[in-house]
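INTERNAL AUDIT FORM
Audit reference: QA-55
Scope: verify that the stored structure record matches its stored sequence.
Auditor: D.O.
Record contents follow.
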Amino acid sequence: GATKVYDGTTTFTGVDLTLNTGDVVSGDTVTATADGTSASKDVGASHAFTATSVTLGGTHKDYYSLAVGTVTGNVAITAKPLTDAMISGIAANYDYTGKAINPTPTVTDGTPSIIATSDYTVSYGANKKASTGGTVTITATSGGNYSGTVSKSFTIGKANSTAGLTVDKSDKTYTYGDTITFTVNVGLPKAKLFARAAAINTVDFYLGTDTTGTKLNSSAITLTETGGTGTATFAYDTTKNTAIPFNDNITVTAVYGGSGNLNSQTASVSGIKLQEKAISGTVTIDIANGTGSDKKTDKGDTLTANVTAIQPTEAQSELTYQWYRGTDKITEATNQTYVVTDDDKAKTLSVEVTAGKNYSGTVTSTGIEVDKEPIEGSISITGTTVLGDTLTLDTSSLTPSGATFTTKWQRDGVDITGATAETYQLTKDDLGNTITVLITATDTFTGSMTATKDIPSIKPEKPVITATAGNEQVVLTWTAPFDGGSAITGYELTVTPGITGSPFTIAGSEASYTVTGLTNGTGYEFTLKATNAKGDSEISDTVSATPNVAYTVTFQSNGGSTVAEQQVTAGNKVTKPADPTKPDHRFDGWYKDSAFTTVWDFDTDTVQADTTIYAKWTPVGSNGDNGDTLDNSTGNGNNSTAGEAAKVTAASNAKRAVNTGDTTPFVWLIALLVLSGAGIIAVSVWKRRKR
């Protein structure tokens, strides 16, 4: 009872007391315990103790009593062992950061008592890697109120990241020979994470949607020092790699992380298509003469497909061959060479080459006619290149001299309609172009030849212009003249008498020009010339115009369809517009006045001021008959028939008779209908309405 474990108090209970031997009768059993306080609450081997109460015990306690008033002595307080329950503030798991994770623990012994940090020290493990996790060790300070050591462990979870994979073409379509560049952009939760986690410094690329596909490459990541982002690129050379098949929609997946301290992240790009490279160029046929004629291709000659012009050069070794007789395949004729047989007589032989392996496409040679003598030598064109001159085909150097052929003249490679003679007369269309003559052998001869002649362009033709006067201006218009085979680059407009800016330079694409700043009433003369690469055209014929005030002519259609106003120069005539329309009315012409007394004559009348011209209308019935009254201001005419007009007239007269001096309401009464050859006549009377 004289020793207790540190509890932060000075209180002691049940301290055993030693009784003097002489004070207890032999054979009696008596004990004594005391409750009290020590001089200190801290750990110590000998603290003064003062009892606050003494309790006697034992079988014979009732026969004894305490002889002294104060009991003192010494007691001891020993250190309290640290326990796991005393430690808090350390989570079970932390996310990987690339730095040591050292959480600060909280150590308590009861509530709310908190042990001062002087009673313990804290130490940490490496605490960086997700693979090993971390530890925090709390050790009681030697000589303090606590003893022992407690260790707390936690796990370090792998960091999460983001990743995106792209290729360098938006359509994702590549051709053999291209390099497909894959780019991975990754983002990390904290900057410089790459630099602290060597296990994530590479990205692996796989064919397909996951890691079960063929591994294409591992690429290093280049980290940016800010933002925790990195980029890895992978250049897939289609000429050196065969993992990606042709003509299929391919998916490639980038995988990054998954070991060390980073969770695995994947990014895929789909729809990648790799296609073979198309071949181009031509195939010709080389002929090695056999035992027959050396003037023509015949039995025994060896034909060889010449593919040296096929591109790319690497594709030449991957070609396959098929020889044709006309349009029919020759069985088993699939080598680069072919020997002419009796079956080929009077036939046309050709060879088709087909690309293989990494290439696609076919190329077919021109045909070789068997047992036909090829034409050789050359042809030419004679004659001058002046418009209207005649060009002539010259075959003096053609062999054999008796070869037969057809002739065709072409302009820049396009056949000229009807030009099939051995002469050709130059037209305007030929200027500035190349004329070709093509001969094609016929009968027992084979082959074709061409000759060309460039036809120079000439100066443009003289333009034709018109002038329209306006208010202080004149508008010049023209149609582009024949350009002589060379595009018109500009025009020059000269005004007489001269004004500022004359002569005016005008773009070759224009077909009109407005000369402004002219004096009304003054006559002006205008000329125009066109220019092309060959020079200037002749100057146009002179046109004259006198600018004058322009007046506004307004068409008052009186309820009819709208007619656009016109601007007419003083003294000029109005252009007759299309007739307006008005429902249930007939248009009766344009008049100078609103009373329709004088007709406007578009052939003779001229404008001397702002003018309004008025439309006159005659109402018509729904069946097209003429009415009997006019209303040109509102368009409300009488659409009745003649008989109905009689009815209205009679009724009106009756109304006037009845209503004289009498405003009493009335009603119509039809008194009598008489049918006659002239129509229906209605006789109406008025009757006073009864009150």
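Auditor finding: record pair retrieved intact. The first strand starts at residue 3 and ends at 5.
Action required: none
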